[in-house]
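Recall the central idea of this unit: under ordinary conditions, the amino acid sequence of a chain determines the structure it adopts. In this exercise we apply that idea directly, starting from the sequence alone.
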Amino acid sequence: MELIFRDDAYQRSCEASVVSAEESGIRLDRTVFYPMGGGQPGDSGVLRLADGGSLRIVDTRKGETPDDVLHVPEDGAALPAPGSAVTAEIDWERRHRLMRMHTCMHVLCALIEGDVTGGQVGEAKGRLDFNLPDTRLDKEALTAALNRIVAEDHPVRPRWITDAELAANPQLVRTMSVKPPRGQGKVRLLEIEGVDLQPCGGTHVRRTGEIGPVAIGKIENKGRQNRRVNILFAA
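Accordingly, the structure predicted from this sequence is:
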């Protein structure tokens, strides 16, 4: 399956052919739909059919392999036949909000020294959990630092390194709960120029300025060492 979102997160639709179709998910030969992973929700949208009809996709999930994507249809939908031509079209407004928040979470990760123990990307807010024993976080200072980096409009781009290069640079992996997939020979990194570099398979904006104004919400104590930092869009 060709994963178009991996190289171009801004492509909103693509022509595709149905490989298989079941209630649990529809497989296409190529897709712009991102499957749930790394704390980022799967895309929703529609498959537009050759006869003028459409099929609503309510979620996107990973299948049996890293490149296997299942487009989950709404309950009771008539499934397209294998070989059918479709246009796969994501809910762009939702996806773009998720892209903005996901990139913002990478900026936050660069500002806090500590292993990431969990996270969740949302349309209006997100959160990161950090392993931070004996550390106090300043909400106002973090908000100011986030917005400074956003305003500096740093370029954001994916790039790839080999499994061997990642093994030689273990400090690139910040997340304790989610490890980058290995065994395919290469690993995708997300680089925020001058700010952050770490493995990530998610979708992101092209520049930090696209994130827009943000604010740190609650900073919660979720255990002896775990600190949860909530982020909100401020506009």
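The mean pLDDT is 92.
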